[in-house]
Amino acid sequence: MKEYQTITEISGPLVHVETDEPIGYDEIVEIETGDGQTRRGQVLDTASGHVAIQVFEGTEGIDTDSSVRFLGETMKMPVTEDLLGRVLDGSGNPIDSGPDIVPDERRDIVGAAINPYSREYPEDFIQTGVSAIDGMNTLVRGQKLPIFSGSGLPHNDLALQIARQASVPEEEGEGGDDEDTEFAVIFGAMGITAEEANEFMDDFERTGALERSVVFMNLADDPAVERTVTPRLALTTAEYLAFDKGYHVLVILTDMTNYCEALRQIGAAREEVPGRRGYPGYMYTDLAQLYERAGRVKGQEGSITQIPILTMPSDDITHPIPDLTGYITEGQILVDRGLNSQGIQPPIDPLPSLSRLMDDGIGEGLTRGDHGGVSDQLYAAYAEGEDLRDLVNIVGREALSERDNNYLDFAEEFEEQFVQQGYDTSRDIDETLDIGWDLLSMLPKPELNRIDEENIEEHYREDVEAEVAAD
């Protein structure tokens, strides 16, 4: 371990050092300041005779007389099953009152995407307890399904609800995993306020969800550089629990927008040529390195499912962050500002939402045989009702036919009964589908052209259609 006192420049979170030997990329560094404090950093760029270091705790107090030590290893996460129930900061250090962590091993946080040859196709249902997700945008084990939100919208409440309620159904169909396989949640928060952190912890402790969770907290006043490390620490922990200990792990990362802002800040400090809207040109690759660490591995019981959450700047879904995230992941859940203003909780808009792997995770033996048809019919009916709302603004409701008025009533009831459920209510898939049938029974049978006849005969409620006709 060689020590240098050759700092040439300090720029934002970066320290530039002259060296006389090769230094490895991502190598961990200790910087000792003049007042005896030690700061940790990571090699961000290395060239002949020059190294750029990103400092995790900030560069305040570091000057050209500070000592730099290269430790000869990359950053590692101490992993153990005892991490469940613990709260860590954005650098992986415990910040709760628990005992010292005695790790089984220390793992490199720069993981790799799962080898495509070793991947097992995601096709098992994860129940979140949220009807708009389970019924119409089903989450599948091993999938990466982001939540697209906007500033001021309650995506944190939705994240906590999913973390609290998510479970693997006890009864598995043919090809399912052992029902004794345990379920764990890794919650990685990046750039959140102290108030949000307190809300998260109060909810985890109040509901008991902390017992099966590992929480990583990077606050808004923590160094931005730390935000680039937090999701990698979370995913390294998830990989250990999933593929070494056999857990089904749900990883929730919020807010990926803060993560990308940290990338932009570091890129600006390095004087890189910016890409779209000032973000680094390599942001797609960087995000893919995180998202592609989700999945299932052949021969392994465990799995990693990801729900990244991001706030779209100015609610712009074409912004580089949601745009690139949409390319890499398998769909999106969209939190809608209009539904939120109506008091709908959670305000998920099913129409622009999508789960590309849904068809592989539903059906007989996984959820229910009528699931696919009910979902398709709900989509079609709600979409027609939404279109008719625009028409009503022009011609008035009195100008519409009885059929059109039925669809308008359906759209209103769909939002009030199916999407609306509150943040403290968990619905199993049977309850979700039964509510769907109650709503579809508002429409005449001939309108249900996306559902098999036998399912209509079994679940359609004649009394609901009669009530609508009477009204």
Key features of this structure:
471 residues; alpha/beta; 10-stranded mixed β-sheet; 22% strand; single chain; Rossmann fold; Bovine Mitochondrial F1-ATPase, ATP Synthase Beta Chain, Chain D, domain3; 3 domains; 7-stranded antiparallel β-sheet; 14 helices
Please sum up the structure shown.
The protein is α/β, with parallel strands linked by helices.
Describe what you observe in this structure.
A hairpin with a 5-residue loop joins strand 4 and strand 5 (38-47). The chain is 33% helix and 22% strand. It folds into 3 domains: 3-74, Thrombin, subunit H; 77-359, Rossmann fold, CATH 3.40.50; 371-470, Bovine Mitochondrial F1-ATPase, ATP Synthase Beta Chain, Chain D, domain3 (Orthogonal Bundle), CATH 1.10.1140.10. It starts with a strand and ends with a helix. 43% of the residues are buried. The protein contains 14 helices and 21 strands. With 471 residues, it is of the alpha/beta class. The longest helix has 25 residues, at 371-395.
Mean pLDDT: 90
**Total DSSP E strands:** 21
Would you identify the regions where 5 or more consecutive residues have pLDDT less than 50? 171-179
Q: Helices and strands: which structural class? A: alpha/beta
Number of domains: 3
**CATH class assignment of the largest domain:** Alpha Beta
CATH architecture heading of the largest domain: 3-Layer(aba) Sandwich
Q: Specify the biggest β-sheet.
A: 10 strands, mixed
Number of helices: 14
